[in-house]
Amino acid sequence: MAHSYGKKADLALSMSVKLARAAATFAQCTQEDIRRYGLTLPQFGALESLGHLGRITLGELSKKQLTSGGNITVVVDNLEKEGLVERQPCKEDRRVIYVALTEKGKELFQRIFPQHARFVADKASILTRNEQAELSQLLKKLGTGLSAHS
Fold this sequence. Notes:
Elements: H1 7-35, H2 41-53, E1 56-57, H3 58-64, H4 69-81, E2 85-89, E3 97-101, H5 103-124, H6 129-148
Antiparallel strand pairs: 1-3, 2-3
Helix pairs in contact: 1-5, 3-4
């Protein structure tokens, strides 16, 4: 017999489970696409941030990727070994390190990101454009509201 915790709690729990399952399934699909480029999800995320934002500090990249400084350092180290990014010391503050795409990194980003964007658009087309916009709005509202209460 299913337990009920009250209409309000039951609705919230149902929404939470559906959100988690949909997010996990969507993430699994996108990770499979990313793997075909020979990249890990954190590496792809770093390339994506740098490709869209340009040169940023290691700290900013860590915040964009929602990861710790130690983890982003390993990601950048591996991308640097592949010749895709480079560290650039800040002239004004030696504690600050910038990260930027190399020419090889820019070429890779410009080659793979449009393909990935089309892949994501295809998966998202299960929903109409209006549904996608509405869901984006609702998820932003949920995320922003939860952040405000943290």
